Amino acid sequence: MVALGSAGSAGPSFIELAGAFGGALDDWSAAVRDALAAEGRYQNWLARRLGTPAPKVSLWLRGREQVWLSGAGLPGAATTRAIVRELGLEGPSADRLAALAARIDDLQRQMEARHPRDWRKRAVEHLRGTAPAPAPAPAPTADAPTAPPPDSPQPTPRGGRRRSLPRLAAAAATGVAAAALVAHLASTRTAPDTAKPAPAPQPAAIPRAAGLEQPGLEKNTLGADSRCGEPVPGPESVVWRVCARVDADRVAFAVKLTNQADGAATARVRVRVQYARQKAFHPCPEAPNPQPVDVPPGRTVITDPARCSVPREPVPYAYQGVGWVVPANANAGSYELSPTAHVHPDRTIWKPDLL
After folding, report:
1. pTM of the model
2. Are 188 and 206 in contact (CB under 8 A)?
3. N or C: which end of the chain has fewer CB within 10 A?
4. Residue partners of 273: CB distance under 8 A and separation at least 6
5. How many whole angstroms separate alpha carbon 266 and alpha carbon 187?
6. Residue 352, preceding peptide bond in cis (omega within 30° of 0)
7. How far apart are CA 114 and CA 14, in angstroms?
8. Which residues lie across from 281 on neighbouring strands?
9. How far apart are CA 274 and CA 279, in angstroms?
10. Mean pLDDT by 10 residues, the chain (355 residues)
């Protein structure tokens, strides 16, 4: 962590405070996400236990992005104590969350003391790199933790911490060619298409109102006997889920992406899909590397399950899809998991599952 302030200074600058604040929020969100994963819990479960709207809990888990995505209060000591209680955390994991919450509260107080009326607006400008500065300022992500690159993921051990880099802006305005492509797809596609995440051609998208993307698990998104995990917001206007499907002879995995923007911007992201068998991570046989994927506004894209499928074994195994979705220019991020498919020779048991 970079030390705030410098020799002979009266204290840390606002830029340094904002950078440390963003890093603390990133660390706090990653720690809560890891605690949920270690306990086999989902965001909606936590929202119900806390009596908090699910979208607010989702924002809490977005690190520094929550500063500009909403004007709602940020997680602090009181929220953290409730989360620790509901998850039954003890020892180092509980202590670390409490320390991060105290740091968030302290940094917020310092920024409010500098700029009582617009501290949040100023923090957003620095965290997003849009603040005018007469001289070079410290990089706002200096305090952010180092994340494992998508090219070499490892499963998070129970009670461990998966680190993540802050999400970066990924969508860029497209020109006439992109608009024509979207119009063509809207007129020619009436059923869901699966996307092969390769550099070219870009996957086709299905017309779908982004507002219909609902919280909670999804059933049969990839076909019969398939499940998708809870929606994960970001980068920017993209919401995504990791999915798995069990067929008679194979088990397949995919990532579903929806661009909730209603403008003309196509979201370009990098996507990687893997699978976990008995908690060990494995690359997809036909798509071992991250691939760029374009998601037109108001559309849904699903990576091709055929490129990430394995034979169904004659003995029981537990499978999960593993997915990363990061900005197009990012090389690191946090993975998400699908519900677990406990695949037996004669049946499949999903955990968690819809009633």
Report:
1. 0.48
2. no
3. C
4. 197, 242, 253, 254, 255, 284, 287, 303, 307, 308, 321, 322, 323
5. 17
6. yes
7. 7
8. 276
9. 12
10. 46 88 91 87 85 83 84 85 92 91 92 90 81 43 40 40 35 36 38 43 45 76 93 86 95 94 82 94 93 91 94 94 92 89 94 87
